[in-house]
Structure formats: structure tokens, C-alpha cells
């Protein structure tokens, strides 16, 4: 069987880390099994879905390294859903209901007072033709519900193992709103059948939906895909990521300068038995990540862990990978990259370190160090220089002044770089050259 997966975001906002998790887990599964990846825009909510958000989702996926094999938009596929609707109506599985939202709220409240579950009572199934004609004459427009079998629906979850969802404890779901627009459930099933989706990989908050959807698959005579429900990513406060709650978006992370692979690793390997550590590529993760490694508990995302991961990836990045990015900001040379990369938290930080090479340096020496720095200027060895020059220079200063440790090295670092931290001065001196050093010493 050829594997086909789909990721189905709603283009109602920019995607965040919680959305990136299923997007990438589907990608890993497709790559691991040589399958196809479908990006399906669930844009049936015309009041909230926009093309701008849809384009943003494509951009975010591309930045993360995901290239779909097929892109479809539900707004282009209404004829398929209409045909499925008609089949379900003819089979007696989809029926019109005329209750208003207020009436449904009162029914649910009354059921709770009686100690009963607040599920729909299927009163609409008892309506006569005359009743429906009267309600239509009152101007009521029906919403449409799918009549569940009301039975234990069993499936073998790729991640959670054997699952049972008892649809007898659920309300018949509304598939079509009173304005004629489709909710998520029916178009999703119809698309999965039409596109030949073999595996549905999504968050564990959809487990109960799976029971309903399996019944719809069966009612339409379509093959039921294999389901896998992964744990959800939560933030440091234990809250789920949400567009409406304003969770930091993938676009925000890109703007802040994070490496896309670091973001992908943090979004997917958090909450698994694999360590959150640098990998060479998404394919390298796909080769190692088996769904049995996904925890059944929540996956707590720690921003500090992403920061550390991002820095580690830069520190180990070979020059060949960084060269074009350096050139784009006017920096050239493997020696420069090798000198500064261990001091980077984000790639864009290297622009700050460029100032260390090219100046000017904004530093006023402490009064007690001026005499020492004047001597340092006088003892600065002549060129040519290599990485032994730092030891030669500081040994001469140590012999002349008796200084050692921080008192010996820090005034020199501050005078030459204007910073307390930074790369090894034995390498930096060679790149600076003697003239630049003389210019920075009093």
C-alpha cells in the first residue's frame, strides 16, 4: 500500500508550534515510508479563512523544509461534499433539525438537571412532514445532523494502541450549518476518501472525533484510514498553543532569527524518547523517529531549550552551510565563521561581531589600566602574525608587569573588542592585524 498523509490546517491565522507538530510528524511519516504528503486547506469557514493566511501557511511550511506533493482547498471542492450530502440524506443518515441554539441550550441544561448526559435527543427524527412545513413557514432553516449508529467504534491507533469510542454517548454531530455551509467533519472524510489518504496523523484532541468519522467513512462506503493521535505541545505554563490565545507563531520565530531546523526539532521531538538535539536534516529525524517513541503524556515546550538548541546548531554549522548567508550580509571567509560561530545564539548575531573586526570600538579604558595598555602598545610584536602571537605578547607583558589572569587579559580584550566576552583572542588578533590593534590601544 502506498502511504498518503495529509495535513489540514484552517487558514484563519498564522500557524504556531502546536500546528507545526502534526505538520512535521505527517512529513516524517511520509518520508520514512516513501509516501505522498497532501496539504489541504480547510477553508470552509468563509467568514474567518483568508487567502493571506493560506499563503502564510505555505510560506511557513516551506521555511520549515516541508514541500507538499499536492495542495487542495476545500473551498474548491464543494461539489464533492454536496454529492456526499445527498447520498447520506437518501440513506437516512443525514436529517434536518430546526431547533435554535437557545432551544438546544435549554435542552442541555434540562438534561443536566435531571442527571442525564446533555446529548441531542433526536427530536427532529419525530417531526412529520406537516411539522417541517410549519417550521419552514416560520422562516426556520434547518441544520443537518448525522445519525450515529450508537455503538463502540474500535480502531488500532498508530501511537496510542487499541482505542474504543462509544458513539452512543455522543450527540449526533451537526455536519451542515443552517446557512448551508459545511462544518469540518463531512468535508474531511470526503476529501480523505477522494484523495486516497491512508493515514490520518493528528493531535489527541481528535480521538473522540475519530469514532464519528469512522461511521461516516463506512456510511459513504469509503476505506477507513489508519489513525494516529499524538500528544499535544503545551507551553511552560501548561497551556495548549492556540491562535486565539495569541501563541507565538512560526512567522514570529522566523523573524526572531531562529534556525528552521531547530524549530522543527523542538516542535516534534519534545515529548518523545528521542533527545532534543541537533540533527543534520528533517530526513535524519524521519529515519530515527518511530511513533512508538511518542509519549502518551503532554509535551511541555521550554523556550530556553529552543534557545540552547539553536545555539548548538550554529556552533556546529560547517562553513559551507553558512557561506552564502555570510556573503548576503557582506561577510566572507571561513576564518571569520570559525572564529565567531561559537559566540552566536542566532545567526543574525554575527553582524554584531562584525563590528569587532571593523570597528570602531566604543571603550574608555579604566584609569588604572592606561599605563598598562600604553606598555602593551609598545610591546606589540611586529608582523607577520600567526596564532602564537597572543602568547608571545601576553608573556612579554606578564614578565614586564607581573600581571596575570584577569588583570592581564581583560584590559586587552576590552581595548581590542569593547566586550567582556567573545572569541579566543589568539585567533582574533590574526584577523585584526597589527594596525587595527595599534589603533585601539592608547
Automatic annotation (TrEMBL):
Give residue numbers for sequence motif 'KMSKS' region: 240-244
Keyword Membrane on entry: no
- Boundaries of every Glutamyl/glutaminyl-tRNA synthetase class Ib catalytic domain copy: 3-274
InterPro entries named among the record's database cross-references: aa-tRNA-synth_I_cd-bd, aa-tRNA-synth_I_codon-bd_sub2, aa-tRNA-synth_I_CS, aa_tRNA-synth_I_cd-bd_sf, Glu-tRNA-ligase_bac/mito, Glu/Gln-tRNA-synth, Glu/Gln-tRNA-synth_Ib_cat-dom, GluQ/Sye
BP terms from Gene Ontology: glutamyl-tRNA aminoacylation
Q: Identify which top EC class this enzyme belongs to.
A: ligase
Which keywords appear in this protein's UniProt record, sorted alphabetically?
Aminoacyl-tRNA synthetase, ATP-binding, Cytoplasm, Ligase, Nucleotide-binding, Protein biosynthesis
| Catalytic reaction annotation | tRNA(Glu) + L-glutamate + ATP = L-glutamyl-tRNA(Glu) + AMP + diphosphate
Residue numbers of motif 'HIGH' region? Answer: 9-19
- Record's Gene Ontology CC terms? cytoplasm
Q: What is its EC number?
A: 6.1.1.17
List of residues binding ATP: 243
Its assembly, as annotated, is: Monomer.
Q: According to its UniProt entry, what is the function of this protein?
A: Catalyzes the attachment of glutamate to tRNA(Glu) in a two-step reaction: glutamate is first activated by ATP to form Glu-AMP and then transferred to the acceptor end of tRNA(Glu).
Q: What is this protein called?
A: Glutamate--tRNA ligase
Lineage summary: Bacteria, Pseudomonadati, Pseudomonadota, Alphaproteobacteria, Hyphomicrobiales
User: Which gene is the coding source of this polypeptide chain?
Assistant: gltX
